[in-house]
Write a structure and sequence with these properties.
The protein is built from ten helices and 14 strands. The chain is an alpha+beta fold.
C-alpha cells in the first residue's frame, strides 16, 4: 500500500484533522540514512510530523522545515516538507545505542533528549520565513509538536506519531495524526476529542491492525463524525540536482575551489537528504571557476 494522508473536519466544524500512513517514506528515509532502530523510530516520527505539517500550510512553492536538536545521542534531526507533504530529511548521528522504555517499546525520548529545541521554519514565499521555536518537552516528538502548536501558534493540538520497527530491523508500519481545535469549540467537543484519543490508543497498534488513516480518524473522532476533504499521496522525495549542487560548490569560495582543482582529483558530492552522488572532475571545477 502506498503512503497517503487525509485531511478533514469534524461534522460540527470545530475540529480540523489530518492523518497519514507514512510506512514507505519512513522506510526510504531509514534506508538512506542507515539508521539503527532507535534512530529509525525518532527520524520516522519526525518525517511523519513534517509531512502533515507541510501539507497543512498550502502555500504554492513553499516549504516547511522541522528541526529537532536535543542532548540525546542522535544529535539533530532535520526534515523538510513541500506543500503536498512529500518529505526528505537527515539525522546527525544515525548509529545510536539501543534503548527501550520497556520490552518491545523503543525509548525515543532518550535518543532525542529533553534538553534542546524544536524549531519550525515556514517558507511562505514572503520576504522572510516564519520561524518558531520551543524547548523540547519530552523528546518523544509527538509531545513536542503538540507543545509547539500550543505555544508558538496558539492552536490547541493533539499529535500522535508511531513507527514500529520489526524484528529484522525494518520499518513494519509508520503513521500519525494531528487533531486541532478551532476557535469557539465547545467543551462538549473538547471532551469527545479527549475521550476519542484515549479510546483509539497507540497509532502503531491501529496501523498494525490494518486501519487506514480514515479509520484512525474515525476511531479518534467517534460520534463527532468526520468529513474528508482531501486525500493526497505522499512520498520521500528529494529535490537535489546537479545545478543545485553546483550552486553549493560555488559557495565554497574561489580560494577553496582553486585548491580542489589543483589536487587534480574528481571531487565527489553526496546529497545529505538522499543517496545521490554528484562527481565533479578537475575540468568541471575549472569551468565553475571561469564562471566566477
Amino acid at each position: 500500500m502506498n503512503d497517503y494522508l487525509v485531511r478533514g473536519m469534524s461534522m460540527d466544524g470545530f475540529v480540523k484533522v489530518v492523518a497519514i500512513r507514512s510506512t514507505e517514506l519512513v522506510r526510504r528515509g531509514a534506508q538512506i540514512q542507515k539508521t539503527t532502530p532507535n534512530a529509525t523510530a525518532a527520524f520516522g516520527r519526525a518525517l511523519t510530523a513534517a509531512s502533515m505539517m507541510g501539507n497543512m500550510q498550502k502555500v504554492e512553492n513553499g516549504s516547511m522545515t522541522l528541526q529537532i536538536k536535543g542532548d540525546g545521542p542522535i544529535g539533530s534531526i532535520v526534515c523538510v516538507s513541500d506543500p503536498i507533504g512529500n518529505v526528505r530529511g537527515y539525522v546527525y548521528e544515525p548509529n545510536v545505542p539501543f534503548a527501550e522504555k520497556y520490552p518491545g517499546k523503543l525509548d525515543v525520548g532518550t535518543t532525542v533528549g529533553t534538553d534542546g529545541m524544536l524549531t519550525v521554519i515556514r517558507d511562505l514565499q514572503m520576504k522572510e520565513p516564519y520561524v518558531g521555536s520551543i524547548p523540547l518537552v519530552s523528546g518523544e516528538i509527538a509531545d513536542d509538536v503538540t507543545a509547539y502548536f500550543a505555544q508558538s501558534e496558539q492552536i490547541p493540538t493533539a499529535c500522535a506519531l508511531g513507527v514500529l520497527v520489526d524484528r529484522d530491523l525494518s520499518v513494519k508500519v509508520a503513521g500519525g495524526y494531528l487533531i486541532q481545535l478551532l476557535p469557539g469549540a465547545p467543551d462538549e467537543t473538547i471532551d469527545k476529542v479527549e475521550a476519542g484519543i484515549k479510546r483509539a490508543g497507540a497509532v502503531t497498534t491501529m496501523l498494525n491492525d490494518g486501519l487506514t488513516p480514515e479509520e484512525i480518524l474515525g476511531q479518534v473522532c467517534g460520534d463527532l463524525g468526520v468529513v474528508f476533504m482531501e486525500t493526497t499521496p505522499v512520498e520521500y522525495k528529494c529535490y537535489c540536482s546537479r545545478e543545485r549542487v553546483t550552486a553549493a560548490i560555488i559557495s565554497l569560495g574561489e580560494k577553496e575551489l582553486k585548491e580542489i582543482a589543483a589536487e587534480g582529483k574528481t571531487f565527489p558530492v553526496e546529497c545529505q537528504f538522499c543517496d545521490e552522488k554528484y562527481l565533479f572532475t578537475p575540468e568541471d571545477i575549472e569551468t565553475i571557476l571561469k564562471g566566477l
